[in-house]
Amino acid sequence: MGAVTGGATGATSTPAAATGPKQARSRVTRRHLLEAAVSCLAEHGWAGSTVSVVAERAGVSRGAAQHHFPTREDLFTAAVEYVAEERSTALRDLFHAGPAARPAVVEALVDLYTGALFRAALQLWVAASNEEQLRPRVTELEARVGRETHRIAVELLGADESVPGVRETVQGLLDMARGLGLANVLTDDAARRARVVAQWSRILDAALG
Predict the structure, then answer these.
(1) Signed CA dihedral, 24, 60, 45, 197: sign only
(2) The predicted structure's pLDDT at residue 12
(3) CA-CA to 177 of 20 to 30 Å: which in 133, 148, 167, 196?
């Protein structure tokens, strides 16, 4: 403590100064772990995605990973939730002015289900079907993500859900987008996807007015 001058004032300022960078490093480590977990899950599936594998990809120790996420289930459910929130934010930012041209909205919503996030979520669903400890967490997570995605879709499409059938039409769009995501898991389905997106845009124009 000999380097500290100014009495009590200097002593109290040192921890505060150290806390900020430490918290920032902790947030960066956490984000790297979450991003690495999604990548591993999408590439290697549940069986091949251990905490050690994720920690190595993130460039941190296994102990550091477990400091942030005590269990494997904590890590992977948090990872899928984190990226889902990031994608939702990006989707909102893409159409920050509110309702937009429906073909663009439909295409953006479909894109949510054709990338690494969807592949990771799919692996998590499969694992949850066989892992009793994981199932309730994934079920709750997917319900929450589904509700948020539906709200965003309604907002961007300018849909009035007080009109009978509109809510079901929007949900049908999201179910269709999920199906296109499944079709894209094994092969590049971009050409057929483009035709389906165009047709759904026409259906929405007729249904939503």
Answers:
(1) positive
(2) 46
(3) 133
